[in-house]
Amino acid sequence: MGSGHEQVVFCSDPGSGLRAVIAVYSTALGPALGGTRFFPYASEEAAVADALALSKAMAYKNSLAGLDLGGGKAVIIGDPHTDKTEALLRAYGRFVESLGGRYLTACDVGTYNADLDVVARETRFAHGRSEAFGGCGDSSVLTAFGVFQGMRAAAQHRWGSPTLAGRTVAVAGVGKVGSWLVDRLIADGASVVVTDVDPAAVARVRARHSAVQAVADTATLVRTPHDVYAPCALGGALDDETVAVLPAEIVCGGANNQLAHEGTAELLRGRGVLYAPDYLVNAGGVIQVEDERHGFSFPRAESKATSIFDVALRVFAAADAEGVSPAVAADRLAEERMSSVGRLATIRLPR
Question: Gene3D superfamilies given for it (predicted)?
């Protein structure tokens, strides 16, 4: 396969219609934690490619966040609005259980706390559950908080002050994470312009914040004058065309896998745009989910997530010192921890 993954599992249950892929990239630091994405992929190949990319990103995210967790991800092929059933989710839970704890699952695009409650009826390894079941609830709250901390760090690095007050932030996607981020930005004194493929999502944000401006689509948004661009929808948002026209000095958003290809980070650097690596700044959600394993405490999880600010500053400083993009600097820090701490597993402990 050549991807560096430890394990890829194909899951099929014709009775419930389940077709899923679970990818475990690394367990060097601990069990591979990563959410379950429920999405109508065009093909099985597309689903596998997404699972491979997302699981690797989770390994780096968990490492950089200082968690004792490896990285994994699962994707369920189908339309979550029409194909999601109790039988399908429980069948998926049995496949997760069969991995014996090598993979810990949680929410992602197309799955919610209530879905994980169903999955958990078949496995001990489902997290991000409803508060009614002792879970951490909606992890998008701390995901947005972490993105905001990363954005503050980027503002500090670029403009010398850790605030977005007086700046214009363009938010692409105001679903779960994007809408919480808008709340933080408005409270901090920023001007905000948004777009989303779902008009109802835009309407909900503007109902809370009448000063928020909205534009028709992402193509319009990236050409609208702004200081910070925040991609908060699906991956691949930063393609060559977008980078070429982007007026922002900073890119910092909640979406996973924002860079369309490996050269995108260098294109941003060449244009003088400071890129806050997505898996660094959107780690608040996984920090929240990880805390659930210890008996969830929101204040404790929020306190942990504030560390994203300091880690981002370290990444920006390392990038400058080494003459590389922040994406490369973040990868190096994550790989260093996976290597140095992960090797401890070779030291045998008495049973």
Answer: Leucine Dehydrogenase, chain A, domain 1, NAD(P)-binding Rossmann-like Domain
